Amino acid sequence: MNNLRDVEARLAALAGQLNSRPSLAPSVMQHIEALEASTLSLSPSRIRRWMMGRTFRYVAAATVVVVFLAATLWLRSMNSGAGMAFADVQKALERIETAIIDVKYPKTPEHNQKMYVARAHNAVRKEAGTITFILDCNLGRTLVLNDKSKTARIQTDESLKVDFKKHTREMFDKYTRIDAEAIERLGTKKFDGQTLVGFRMQTPDKNLRQVVWVDPKNRLPVRAEDTAVDPTLPGATSIETVYTFTFNTRLDPKLFGTVPPKGYKIVEDVTLTKEDHLPPAPKDKELASPVLEALVGIGRARFGMSVDEVIALLGKPDRRSPFWDNPPERQRAIDQVLQEAKEKSYNEDETIRRLEAVLKKFPVDAGNRPPDGVDLDYNARGFHLKVANDEGLLAVNCLSDWHDARDFSGRTSKGIRIGSTLADLEKAYGPPSLSKTGAGELRSFHCVEYNPLGLSFVLKDGRVTQITLVSQAAAQRRVKSKGNL
Q1: Which fold is adopted by the domain 40-272?
Q2: Regarding predicted confidence, which is higher, 31 or 471?
């Protein structure tokens, strides 16, 4: 990742927390949504990185690591297993021949995937949206299929050869050293009518809470859950994961074949774009390309409306997630950092580093308090909404060049849309309250704010890439605070 994309990605992770109740965002926040549009190209180097990534590690390790982990927890926590020797656990694990691992991301369901592992074939199959990835660990051969475009890519690389049994045995040995004190038994809980025993793991990441649910009959895991202790910290959304396991189901050998199906065209690269996982936009033009009215709302939805009212008028969002307001001490610390950044001319990287430190120092105890509102993401239409429990619809953010959303195709009531110029803005709305160009890595970005109207724009290379509207109350807060940057 180049420096610009790194800065932008880190800013994006901070977006919701710099000021949970939005005024017009300070300039640092105005740059956050402008990630460069990209496609997922499965090159050899990307395949290696993907193999080493968090989700792929579950393919190679889940059948032994999690199985062993759950069995070990069982032995340490249940009297019925107290007399079993470690060798007995090893034998039980060796009987695991196949695994189906269903991986779901509640906050980003478009990234859900399913993986198939077969010890006998020394192979792995992963299905994610329209992309299927098959790795034959004996041959070091991969087959990548795009079911939508009917294209295929074959690669053979010695570095992709993996001794599945040896690899999982190494992981197995690693987990024999888990300290029993790091494990908490959670009791039983029913999932789909099946009673399971839960165990909580202590992890190196203090913001990660891991729970494994085990079948008491065969001592194998059925479900594993990763959740964020503080869901407001950067990266928390990507932590939320639910795994379900099915073991020793007969898997058709054809699942692991590395010969492209009939009708697929062999290409040099298989590309996955955001269109491969986004639902179609509504046929109703007013919903697909809504009009933005400053201090009023978006399309049929008005500022101040409740979540249910907004959804009734705009339709079901592609994603919804709760948000928590910042505790007073966190907000004061954030404001202080932003003020210091202005006075001492911190660069973006230094500002981000200090803000990230504040978020970690003053966590939100989300587990013991209800959320303060809901974020609604309409990625198929290119806009995100923030709706508070007490103030209703607070903010509208319309995007372009966003990695998992279409470009917003609507316009403001004065004709400004994605792609408009600074001259267009000033002709439509007059001189802005603030006009500022980013520094350093963000020098290609320009922020324009009309504070009394609760309206702001981000331009990149002279063209509008983001439009933000906030409610009257939020706009008044912005005018009162006069901004931090």
Answers
A1: outer membrane lipoprotein receptor (LolB), chain A (2.50.20)
A2: 471
